[in-house]
Amino acid sequence: HKTNRSKGSLRVVRTMSKTVLFAGALCLCVVLSAGGVFAANYAVLVAGSNGYYNYRHQADVCHAFQLLTDKEKGGFPVENVIVFMYDDIANNTQNPFQNNIINHPNGPNVYPGVTKDYTGTAVNPANFIAVITGDKDGVKGGSGRVLETTAEDNIFIYFADHGAPGLIAFPSSFLYADTLMGALRKMHTKNMYKELVFYIEACESGSMFANGKLPSEGLNIFATTAATPSQSSYACYYDQSRKTYLGDEYSVRWLENSDYYDSSTTSWTLEEQYKLVASEVKQSQPQQYGQMSISQESIDHFQGYDDNAFKNNTRAGDQPAPTPCGSAVSSRDVKLDVLRRRYRDETDEAKRAELLREIREETEARARADALFGHVANQLASSIEHRNHILQHKGAVVNDFDCLRASVDAVEQECEKFNDYSLKWISSLVNMCESGITADNIRSAARTWCN
Predict the structure, then answer these.
(1) Active site residues
(2) Residue 175: which residues within 8 A CB-CB, separation 6 or more?
(3) Which of 10, 57, 241, 342 has the most other CB atoms within 10 Å of its CB?
(4) What is the pLDDT of residues 204-248, one digit of tens each?
(5) What is the model's pTM?
(6) Do residues 157 and 22 make contact, with C-beta atoms less than 8 angstroms apart?
């Protein structure tokens, strides 16, 4: 193959096939396929969170990077993979194993060698959209690399972080489903790919594509998500030494499945991987969307670089039974769960007192969020039935994204920023917007309570 690179761009020309990959820390994956013959493959991997409690998202993405670039597995040149991760975990003061991240109990260090293109505040929705649409002028900070692909290329995108109905989270802001779909349509209009595959790990991740957002034909995109539009995703593998969760249930299942893939003896399709992962994920129900014909293609068309991908995999063979997650915990509850575990295991009285203070702060923050949205519903509902509908978490479907954006901004400006737990109440904002309550009314009710 021949490689051509220019500043701020990413381009590889290969004689046999083309694929693009993108991944992040909420959990979302999209694959673009070349119909069985590769031209070039690319990937984008995104961990959308920060903070040591969210260790697992960056661990998922680092694992994905190693899977894709390992010469015995995916075989991607590192320059064909663009990575977003805050990079505050490997050397975090809370990490007892410095310069080290693992994604499985007693697993290998997946941090070394990861090319971190966008870190810190450069991990944001605007840069992500600029990268996948090839907008070099739109990138602020980071390496400046963007996708410069053609209609013959395949793309794989993986995202891991938190989410809510109609959005996925980045460290300080949100990416809404209508913006994401607009970017994917722009990529299609610009002939940036042949086929694209998207995997998303996040709560309510199905809401990014459900209800016709991602059409079954026309865009050549196939996506799978960790959960339905109304379910949480779940953390997996609590580590007693690191005192945090190492991975997410959906993510570790697809990653560990691909770790054992052998393309020389079988053609393992995206559909087969999806069905296996769906059977192994116990706490949520993974979903698939988009063009189902792409799901019949081999995973190495998207997670591998060329026809030699996964043919020299020394780990290939019968995959062992999945390691139990232990007590898998909703992503909404990870921080409080971890604090309680640390308090239970701590023997130093001064440290126990500090942990107890943190537990009280977290429970008080949760109570404030619950009270706020209960008040707003009481103020704005037209009836008891309407109030109950507003506070219903399941079934929230976003159509009015302008109202949702303005309502999210109103709550954060009048009260406080959404956190991992309070994101659950985004569904109430959706229900209010869709029932005709305006963002201005939501702002006024929030201001009354928070002031």
Answers:
(1) 162, 203
(2) 125, 128, 129, 167, 168, 169
(3) 57
(4) 999 999 999 999 999 999 999 999 999 999 999 999 999 999 999
(5) 0.91
(6) yes
